[in-house]
Amino acid sequence: MGTIDKNNVPKHVAVIMDGNGRWATEKKMPRFKGHKEGLETVKKIIKCARNIGVKYISLYTFSTENWKRTQEEVNYLMGLIISHLRKEFKFYKENGVRLIHIGDKNGLPIDVQKEINDAIDDCKDFNDITAILAINYGGKDEILRAAKKFAQSKNFENATENDFELFLDTANIPNVDLLIRTGNEMRTSNFLPWQAAYAEIYFDKKYWPDYNEDDFYKAILDFQKRHRRFGSA
After folding, report:
1. What pLDDT, in 10s, does the model give residues 13-64?
2. Per the domain annotation, does 232 fall within a domain?
3. Of the chain's two ends, which shows fewer C-beta atoms within 10 Å, N or C?
4. Number of domains, the chain
5. Is there a domain that residue 231 lies in?
6. Domain of 107?
7. Which of 5, 7, 8, 18 is an active site residue?
8. Is 8 labeled as catalytic in the residue annotation?
């Protein structure tokens, strides 16, 4: 497969974890089985990313558009978020995982907000890798929310991109170096459009529950072959 150059590991990897529902449907299982299996993949990939030196991993957990799904599926996903955050503290501690939330937290049920806040507080001192949980997140929504706050506090004539970035949910977090999408879909689906403006993009045909460490390694190796020019010649 090749050897990863530890001196050229992307600092920030973002992942669109697509294909949970289709994975379950093709196996003639209820869709929620795919979401549950997908959580096991999350743990494997966070640990893998940490071990190779990735410092930030953003996970597209629940988008602002996901509210359009059936109420049954939405309720299950909210419950899964609560139960996962509550029971995985040992995993976070053993792997030094700090948690951050991005998205419109106020649009989430109160009990989900509490679990997110408690988990973030419990893990605030861990520093091997930061897992950024995008829950009720949409890139356009984030930029709009940031613009409203920015408009109240800055002189637009003298504003810079750096000034504006301080109002994004990802303030003080490096921009995305590598964006991975699973599930055989080739779009970014409103995920971190500002932060991933110059990210390298890698698409994988596998559904998220089938995604594994070797697949992640392949994405990193592919990243390391690319020449990042950031608009220069």
Report:
1. 999 999 999 999 999 999 999 999 999 999 999 999 999 999 999 999 999 9
2. no
3. C
4. 1
5. no
6. 7-225
7. 18
8. no
Question: Is 233 inside any structural domain?
Answer: no
100 occurs within a structural domain: yes
Say how many CA atoms lie within 13 Å of 31 toward its Cβ: 13
Tell me the per-residue pLDDT of 104-125, one tens digit each, with 9 for 90 and over.
999 999 999 999 999 999 999 9
Residues in the chain: 233
Domain with residue 185: its CATH number is 3.40.1180.10
Write down the catalytic residue from 66, 104, 163, 210: 66
Strand partners, 179: 14, 201
Active site includes 215? no
pTM (predicted TM-score) = 0.95
